[in-house]
Amino acid sequence: DDTMRLSYRLIPYFDDQWLLVVRDVTKLMHLEQVRRDFVANVSHELRTPLTVVHGYLDLLEPEEKPDWAPMLTEMRHQSQRMTQIVEDLLTLSRLEAQERLPEESVSMASMLATLRREADALSQGRHTVSISDETSLDLCGSTKELHSAFSNLVTNAVRYTPNGGRIGISLRDTPDGGLSLEVSDTGNGIPPQHLGRITERFYRVSTSRSRDSGGTGLGLSIVKHVLALHQARLEIESEVGFGSTFRVVFGPERALERSEHDDALA
Ligand code: ADP
């Protein structure tokens, strides 16, 4: 459309005077929309060819050429990675296009149980996983998107923690009546100079190590978008060599008393 978009800023001037700065951001917002559409279209178009490549790769059995086996394994691995990147980009596009999400009552008891299963499956007994549920509150928001955000944090905790480490997931009340979900690990940690940037798309602390870990570099961007849609904030504490804590804090407007039904399920 050709609506004009303006941005306003009020800046203190002298004494009791104020300066109103009005900027025409029509073009900027249009370019942003073009970028979003482009990423969404490219990702969507890549889906089908990738499915085909992936499907045929799975059918190949190098019986007559045994030395092809490692190459096939690598090709399968890389096409899997590409598929994951495309899926994550589509998730990001979907989140960016949304102004609000469904407001369901999200059962945190079943959320924690799901996260525990996922952590166990990924860790395969290489880490100690502990869960603590210290609140009687549930969340109000989108179960699907919140699960994808929390799941990304748990996956990272397992991914960046050497064998024998500990992963903790805890849910707590906050003093203002909200709640927080904390995912902590005793892993590699993140050097402080990277902390401000790790939620950017494709940003990684150590490119080669992270790439080997199987991630896409998009996980924390997804987390950031989902949290913004829930007016929640992300706090990160990390010490190199000791581990990291990712804490998601929800305000009281996102908190719901758990129903009897949920307690019975838990
Ligand atoms: P990736 O798919 O690479 O894990 P993310 O967006 O999820 O992408 O994370 C961005 C980067 O932040 C990772 O590549 C990693 O370097 C760092 N990181 C994220 N979580 C942790 C963690 N729990 N411990 C150490 N480093 C982490």
From TrEMBL:
It catalyses: ATP + protein L-histidine = ADP + protein N-phospho-L-histidine. Residues 41-254 form the Histidine kinase domain. Its EC number is 2.7.13.3. GO terms for cellular component: plasma membrane. The keyword S-adenosyl-L-methionine does not apply. The keyword Manganese does not apply. It is found in: Cell membrane. It comes from the Bacteria. Keywords: ATP-binding, Cell membrane, Kinase, Membrane, Nucleotide-binding, Phosphoprotein, Transferase, Transmembrane, Transmembrane helix, Transport, Two-component regulatory system. Its main location: membrane. One of its GO terms (molecular function) is ATP binding. GO terms for biological process: cellular response to phosphate starvation; phosphate ion transport. This is histidine kinase. The gene is phoR. The chain holds residues 176 to 441 of 441 of the full protein.
